[in-house]
């Protein structure tokens, strides 16, 4: 049976596809235009594989570190569980457009990480091979994104680094339909996912699961 957390990560990636199109759609489109026009699909696949690889690496890192401290302290484990449930609810509200944006989280990531990593871009350009396209995707996988960071808070609750990587893999898989459809129906998918009823239904799923996680964490805290 698939872990509910993996399913939630996939749903979050799928619902957040509109956000992905806004942030990474231009990058993916320019990649197809700037490279060998005879192999656009190969470069698109390579780019997204690299992006997913970065997500998985980040998930493994945060899960590996957090699981180490969680085994040392019961309070750390409870804090991570509460944080995961809280972010699940925040993302649900954000998707339903009932809460504030996650730009503050993206700004923090830009300051701490992205402004340093983006300098590596000059070693990859121009994109004229599949390995370079993978490297390009891997680099831009670290682009500050509130949804990615929220998914990482779920990965932090994983018991092992491999489980954390799987959480982020399922999240990445959820974003694939939109990213692969850039220029081939992305606007239709974007319209469907941004329909009010779709946002309410899918956002509610995340909120209820977030409440469920908070109830479990609170019960552990009280007992």
TrEMBL record:
Q: Where is the signal peptide?
A: none
Arranged from A to Z, the UniProt key words for this protein are:
Membrane, Transmembrane, Transmembrane helix
Tell me where the transmembrane regions lie. 6-31, 52-69, 75-96, 133-152, 164-185, 197-217
What Pfam families is this protein classified in?
DsbD_2
* The keyword Transmembrane is annotated on this UniProt entry: yes
Q: Where is the Urease accessory protein UreH-like transmembrane domain?
A: 9-212
InterPro entries reported for this sequence: UreH-like_TM_dom
The record's PANTHER family line, in alphabetical order, gives: HEAVY METAL TRANSPORTER, HEAVY METAL TRANSPORTER-RELATED
Q: What is this protein called?
A: Sulfite exporter TauE/SafE family protein
To which species is this protein native?
Answer: Pseudoalteromonas prydzensis
């Amino acid at each position: 049976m698939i872990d509910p957390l993996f399913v939630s990560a996939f749903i979050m990636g799928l619902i957040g596809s509109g956000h992905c199109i806004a942030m990474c759609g231009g990058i993916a489109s320019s990649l197809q235009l700037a490279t060998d026009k005879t192999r656009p699909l190969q470069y698109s696949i390579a780019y997204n594989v690299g992006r997913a690889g970065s997500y998985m690496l980040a998930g493994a890192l945060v899960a590996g570190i957090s699981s180490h401290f969680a085994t040392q302290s019961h309070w750390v484990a409870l804090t991570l569980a509460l944080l995961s449930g809280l972010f699940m609810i925040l993302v649900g509200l954000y998707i339903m457009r009932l809460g504030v944006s996650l730009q503050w989280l993206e700004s923090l990531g830009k300051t701490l990480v992205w402004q340093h990593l983006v300098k590596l871009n000059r070693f990859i350009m121009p994109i004229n091979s599949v390995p370079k396209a993978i490297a390009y995707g891997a680099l831009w996988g670290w682009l500050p994104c509130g949804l990615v960071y929220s998914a990482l808070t779920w990965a932090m609750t994983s018991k092992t680094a491999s489980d954390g990587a799987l959480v982020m893999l399922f999240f990445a898989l959820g974003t694939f339909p939109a990213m692969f459809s850039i220029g081939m129906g992305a606007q239709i998918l974007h319209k469907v996912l941004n329909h009010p009823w779709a946002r309410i239904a899918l956002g509610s799923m995340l909120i209820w699961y977030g409440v469920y996680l908070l109830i479990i964490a609170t019960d552990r805290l009280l007992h």
